[in-house]
């Protein structure tokens, strides 16, 4: 007798079975006869099959063995005698097909527990967005696709540097889910993968935008564009884009790059670009629109929404030249020009600003709007209830800081520490740049004869500013929208701000530790990819009217793990089964909402000898 392993394929799925077989003589020659099926679970390590078959044959013939046969052998023999309906003896584990293994319950252990829930969700969304297929079409090998996914999921779940990433991967079930050996992964491989991704960023964004448009039924009628800054740790001497400029992170002591991002009205990224750290917002519009059209194609008639920093005439001309409409926040002089209308009590319409589904902690607020026409442009005058106190507080704070800095500059001049007239006027110019909101209310000058710095409040301008607290102006060339529609379209711009907050934390975009330009750009690209996954996950919940965040889901999923169950058998061997824990109710609810399987991985079984 001997044991034979057989494999059959049915509907694309392979099934394994172990058979106890004997050779018999027939008129047509020797043939093999199946004694019984031992089931789908290997009865012992392969090198012990022949010995086990001989012992089983002896047991079936009634021969006693020295030492006495163990419980597993007796169970197999009894199964052979009684057929496939043999009952399982107490203390044994039965496989689905009926194979029985005697296990010592006192020595059963669990080992190699790894966090599975968050990486399972990230992997499933990666597959739903077709990112693996996109990378494959770009020429990436299977290993490079796996590394790209691992690096993106790290940014989504627990952002770390490439140096620390392999340890994080080892603490998760990512290798089990990808069915890949990641045990020897080194940071050098991850750095090389950054270099591999860099020239493919545009292609990936273009195909990903098309995939998401189909998957989530998105439209291309509104584009939301804004910029932020991201700073470096270190001097980044090898990156020509790393420069000092206006820091949104309040880190003027650090070099930075500017990141431009375009979203659709649902918050899905369409395009991004990395600009020099000292680039002015207004100079990026034409370049960003070019990048957008490379990703999405020409979309004439769509509306581009930008903030007042990009509301200059050359920006509006760049938008019109590409066939788009514009909706912008008017700059300060335009707002001042409507002072009489702001003071008038006529024609105001009240609207309620409800909290964004992605920001449920936001409070409801009231806004009053008024529509006015000027030549070919529609102006919407807005007064925000919550913004009045905020504008006043910001203006007063900036004014106090400006006065203190003026006093310090005056003291330096009086003490003779600063005497060069050109440098004095440069210092005044820097203060005007630092406090643009309030510097225009002051007339600042240097008296050369008295060698004294002077400043004087412009009460008229200051009074106008106070009257306009909480007020702002929107401007568009769209003639077909109501005042309410224009205002509600503009406030969608807050979704770009939310995207920047998510990319910086929890996706770990800042600070940047890379000093090479290409790797800095790819680091930001990975954060954008992670944000694609994040917004897709949250969109699934919003479609079910469930307002939650990825951070909350991530914490709830951590308790779903992959483990190895160690089963010592009575014959001195060990059966190990690598499998996921049974999902809890909250896990099943999350998986159901995301339309993904609750099965993290197929169980993997292996035999080994019991350690002494």
Helix and strand arrangement:
Blueprint: E1 2-10, E2 13-26, E3 29-39, H1 49-60, H2 71-82, E4 92-94, E5 100-102, E6 109-115, H3 117-128, H4 131-137, H5 142-157, H6 165-170, H7 174-178, H8 187-197, H9 201-215, E7 222-231, E8 256-264, E9 269-276, H10 285-296, E10 303-306, H11 313-321, E11 325-329, H12 332-337, H13 339-343, E12 349-353, E13 365-374, E14 377-384, H14 385-414, H15 421-434, H16 436-439, E15 442-447, E16 452-457, H17 459-467, E17 471-476, H18 483-490, H19 494-504, H20 517-543, H21 550-557, E18 561-568, E19 573-580, H22 585-594, E20 604-609
Parallel strand pairs: 7-10, 10-11
Antiparallel strand pairs: 1-2, 2-3, 4-5, 6-18, 7-8, 8-9, 11-17, 12-13, 13-14, 14-17, 15-16, 18-19, 19-20
Could you give a quick summary of the protein structure above?
The chain has 612 residues and is of the alpha+beta class. It is built from 22 helices and 20 strands.
